[in-house]
Structure formats: C-alpha cells, structure tokens
Amino acid sequence: MFMFPHLLRNAMRQGIYREYQNFKHNDAKLKGTIDWGRHIAQNIPFAGNVAYSTREYSYDNDMTELIRHTIEFMKSKRYGQSVLGLDQETIDNVISIISLTPSYNKNERGAIIGKNLRHKSHPYYTEYQPLQCLCLQILRMEEVKYGETDEEICGILFDGAWLWEEYLNTILQKEGFKHPENKKHKGGIYLFEDHSGIRYPDFYKDDIVLDAKYKKLESYEKVSKVNRNDLHQLITYITNLQASKGVFIAPLSEKQQKNPKSRLKNSSASLYILGIEICHTSTSYADFCEKMKAKEAYFVDTLRQL
Predict the structure, then answer these.
(1) How many CB atoms lie within 10 A of CB 288?
(2) Cα–Cα separations (whole angstroms), residue 153 to 9, 87, 146
(3) Are 36 and 47 contacting, i.e. CB atoms less than 8 angstroms apart?
(4) Are residues 111 and 244 in the same domain?
(5) Which of 28, 107, 203, 216 could form a disulfide with 177 if both were Cys (CB 3.0 to 4.6 A apart)?
(6) For residue 39, is it within any domain?
(7) CA 208, 214, 219, 224 torsion-angle sign
(8) d(CA 146, CA 131)
(9) Spatial CA neighbour of 255 closest among 289, 287, 294
C-alpha cells in the first residue's frame, strides 16, 4: 500500500484513464443504435421513448473502477487511510478517482478484479499498467517481498531523491538560490500567461537553473547522455526563466576531472553536469562531516565559475 500514492501520481500525471464503454438508454434523445428487442419489450405501447445503445469514451471504466476499489479497500486498513492522505497531490488524485467512478459498487470487487486480470496495454497511458498490477496485488492481498523465506521483514521506505534535494538546499540557500517546494506546492513557476502549467524547478536564481538528480551521472562525458525526460525538463525551465545555464547536480563517488558542458543548438544557453563527491574514507561521523565541508566548498567554487 505504501507504493500506491507514487504509482497513482505517475499515472494521473498522464491524465485520467478513459476507454470506450457501451451504454444502454431508453429515452427520447435517440443518438445511437436502436436495440429493437429491448425497445419492443419496454416501450409497447409506444410512449415516446426509444431503447438504444451508444459506445462512448468514459472515465468510469474497468481500470478506474479497479483503482476505486483499491482506494476503498485501503480506507478499511490500519495504515491505508494515512497513506491516502500522504500529501495534497495524493488527496486530490483520490478525490478525482472517486468523483469519476459513480457506478462503484463494493459488491462488484470480484468482477472488477476478473476484468483486470489481463493487463491493459495503451500507447499513451503507459503508467497505468504498473498501477493496475499493484492494485491487483493489494486487492488480492498478495505478498510483495524480496527473497524466498517466510520470515517477516520490517523496514522503512525513504525518498532518496528528495533527501538529496533537501541536502543541496542547505548549501545552495546560502548562495541565494530559490528552492520551490513541490511537495508543499510552493514557489512554482507557470509555463503559460494564464497562470496554468505550474512547474517546480529544484533551484534557480538570475540566469541559472539547477536540477538535483539522485542518479549516477559522473560517467557521462556528454550532457546529451542524460535521460531524455530530465533533459526536456531542464530545457523547459531554462526557456521559461530565460536562463543561460542549466546544471544537473548529482552525487559523485570520486572527484570530477572535468565538467561536461553542451551548448543548446540555436540558443545561447548551455547545460552542465556537476556534483558533490561523497566521502567514503572517513573514520568517524565527525571526520565525515569535516571532509564533506571541504567537498561542498569545492562544489560551490566550481558552480560560481560557470
């Protein structure tokens, strides 16, 4: 259940899943295929209504119903309610799913599970397949675990990428960088003049944008090797803020010999990869802190020289 908000967030960012559904009607607003058998059975003597069927795009479908059943199941569990209220985005996503599944019936859970046993493959809604798999595991109370033993393991899930970002903030705030807070929906920028398309750069000031990446980027000799979605994201921030420099900041296992730099075509802006070397030769926590201060200072000096 702890994985549910993350996969739900990824899926919902692609939009609400919708697919064609068949609907049966019996009214005077004929707009589909007449169902003669049903029409004769229900509308004799004729009183103005016509029985007909339509095939329309609908948000209330097998996939969203599966998500709704998962949400209702989690509400009944000890930790489920807390997980569903993890942050505002998760709360909003849950509200959206509930509002778009008016035909939800708790007694149809078995039927909905059966309809989702075949994984849905969609060229656009790609993030819904892992969510579908997780929902089935939750509803069928399947174990999600590592290893093959029956021993119960207790652990903690932590967001390493967020911790890396907040660690960098302790350094960069002293350099005057603004740090929008995505989790709290504070300090975002807008892509459009009507204040829509809100985005949250990790750090920015003047003509430079920094993007914290908890990934191994030190082996890259060219910025173009960075994940395409990460590149597109940083280029979007640069364009919106009219910056001339964009920098990926990643943890390093050793000191950088050179700082990869690539200039954008038909633009005066350049992208870089920088990082902070993480000390792994310290003999104590105090020694680690002392050595990290030196490495942080080196990083700040390098950043200033861009």
Answers:
(1) 15
(2) 27, 26, 9
(3) no
(4) no
(5) 203
(6) no
(7) negative
(8) 19
(9) 294
Q: Residues 10-32: what's their mean pLDDT? A: 81
Q: Which 3 state secondary structure label does DSSP give 248?
A: strand
Measured between alpha carbons, how far is 230 from 246 in angstroms, rounded to an integer?
11
Residue 156 CB contacts under 8 Å (≥ 6 apart), including other chains: none
**174 and 107 share one domain:** no
Same domain, 126 and 177: no
Domain end (from 139, 170, 195): 139
Number of domains in the chain: 2
Say whether both 107 and 231 belong to one domain: no
Which residues 6+ apart lie within 8 Å of 109 measured at CB? 69, 73, 139
121 and 252 in a common domain: no
Cis? peptide before 201, omega within 30° of 0 = no
**Per-residue pLDDT tens for 140-169?**
886 555 556 666 666 777 888 999 999 999
Segment 59-88, tens digit of pLDDT: 888 999 999 999 999 999 888 888 998 889
Q: Are 25 and 51 in contact (CB under 8 A)?
A: yes
Q: Give the residue numbers spanning the domain of 78.
A: 4-18+59-139
**CB of 169 within 8 A of CB of 203?**
yes
What is residue 177's predicted lDDT score, i.e. its pLDDT?
94
Say how far apart CA 235 and CA 264 lie, in whole Å: 9
**Could you tell me the two tokens for 222?**
């060219």
Enter the pTM of the model.
0.54
CA 82 to chain centre: 19
Q: Are 208 and 172 in contact (CB under 8 A)?
A: no
Q: Which residue has tokens 């597109």?
A: 232
Q: Which two tokens stand for residue 193?
A: 């003049």
